[in-house]
């Protein structure tokens, strides 16, 4: 098979050639866009799921849908070591520029840009030297007394209110997309919830669309008790058999090639239906096939190549971030679950390692902050990465 024509695309956040199994979420967002544009109340949306299920891809697709309807959009990726002001300022600057092309009053655009600049400049420390101060690249003077108090909660409410009103001026709306939502700091989470609460009460045409790991609802509710009523949580999971087959068959058939039914069976078993793995095994199988159609033997021959790529780019890069104590905890989880994608009891991990549960808390909490594990239910911990337990057990046997 010609490797140049290989249609599969395993990559972080990279759109697969066939976005299978996500029609329900896309249709639901169409309704959100319609309702918000008509001034009807609608909750913001948060996509939750394990790594490799396509949350980032879907987030980008939702952004494209909003843009096609003339909405102003801005996207950020939260980071545990950075606050919200600076990346959000850049994202909202993009959203305002989207709206500016349709707005008939340049002075109104400049007014909101001034508020945005005032908000952005508060990202600088008060004791920072002039040459070290970040400049947001907005060519209007900063507003005075609006979104510049230094209190992120007050400032964000004021800023998003003004940006939403700009969307209302042109008869559309604004979508703020936040990836890796679990990495927002406590103060930023609280501010975002407060802003969404204020905007939902006023009916302003602005929605926040977040994406993150399964424990995002817990992160939000720990900040504001009313957060569970602010957001509509949509769980993004692995593909069922029909959708996984479509994700493989459609791009192959567009290249006027084929794959045998038993090869599809094996590919699904190996990938578990996780979109990232489907792409990885599909790409390797295409490259391994000497002729059309792809056979079950081609998939089996290709499997080590796909697994080697996953071991380096998907599993290994995350494992390397863990300290020796954290790796010990991860390996214990893998052994207790026998490599399956199931939660492990925190108490059982302590017994397995012959340690007191309290002595393992620092390692567990650090792994959660690094996004390697999450609390699936009280007293239980699970991997955020599918097949990670299997990878760890395989690694231990080498």
Describe this structure in words.
A hairpin with a 2-residue loop joins strand 7 (373-377) and strand 8 (380-383). With 398 residues, the protein is an alpha/beta fold. The protein has helices at residues 23-37, 55-68, 85-100, 106-121, 152-169, 186-202, 216-223, 227-230, 241-254, 261-271, 275-288, 296-319, 324-336, 346-353, 357-369, 388-397; strands at residues 44-48, 72-77, 174-179, 206-212, 231-235, 344-345, 373-377, 380-383. The mean pLDDT is 92. Helix 3 packs antiparallel against helix 4 and helix 11 (275-288) crosses helix 12 (296-319). Helices cover 54% and strands 10% of the residues. The strands form two sheets. It has a five-stranded parallel β-sheet, sandwiched between helices. A three-stranded antiparallel β-sheet has the order 6-8-7. The protein has three domains: 23-235, 3-Layer(aba) Sandwich (Rossmann fold), CATH 3.40.50; 246-318, Helicase, Ruva Protein, domain 3 (Orthogonal Bundle), CATH 1.10.8; 322-397, Orthogonal Bundle (Arc Repressor Mutant, subunit A), CATH 1.10.10. Keywords: Heme, Iron, Metal-binding. Residues 1-20 are annotated as: Disordered. This is AAA ATPase domain-containing protein.
